[in-house]
Amino acid sequence: MAKIAASTATDATPSARTGARPQKKRKKSQIPYAAIALVMIVIAGILFARKSDNLSISWIFGIAFGFVLQKTRFCFTASLRDPVLTGSTSISKAVIIAFAIATAGFAAIQYSASLADPANIPGNVHPAGIHIMIGATLFGIGMVIAGGCASGTLMRMGEGFTMQWITIIGFVAGSVWGIRDYTFWDSNFFQKSPTIWLPDYLGWGGAVFLQLLVLGLLYWAADSFSKRKLGS
């Protein structure tokens, strides 16, 4: 018995004798695929530039925006889903910061435009009513089931997620159906709802301050929630 045990110990692999884990299989290099994709992006940009400068600029910004989305995992769905599922609010706070930056930027653009021509201020001001609540609820349910909002869906399509390719079909179908029924919603909801533009009521300074204050309170609430849930 002693000889058998000694033979078994001798025949065992080094990893088994030392208790070390077997080495993981090396992942295939993605560099060739990245190089091919880069060449295709450049060629497409050149072709777009021959037709229109705006097309090429939009192409460059679209590629850059997609790259940032993929690396940061920035997603509006995750900003609302993660606090409930994991307690993390890192993406939630990122979205709030993005809103704050957009608020300052759009306010500056609109204020400058109002000085030149108050009747033609860029940006859309839509009626606020129960239709916003209905649309937000339906969209919120849909994006949680689908696992992504519009930006997250497009980003994950590029990563090869089959579910997101199915989701984009739903996006298109829903948009077409919405256009089909737009007259109904417009006559029964849009036209009967009040249009509220804060600068009309609070002035430019008051409107910007109020919006940034609300965003600041939301950021504080998100940060406090995360610390309480995760204990950090």
UniProtKB/TrEMBL annotation:
Q: Does the keyword Membrane apply?
A: yes
Low complexity compositional bias, start-end: 1-18
Q: Which domain of life is it from?
A: Bacteria
Enumerate the Pfam families for this protein.
Sulf_transp
Q: Does the keyword Membrane apply?
A: yes
Membrane-spanning segments? 31-49, 55-74, 95-116, 128-149, 161-179, 201-222
UniProt KW keywords: Membrane, Transmembrane, Transmembrane helix
Q: Where are the residues of the annotated region Disordered?
A: 1-26
Protein's name according to its UniProt entry? YeeE/YedE family protein
Q: Which organism is it from?
A: Paenibacillus profundus
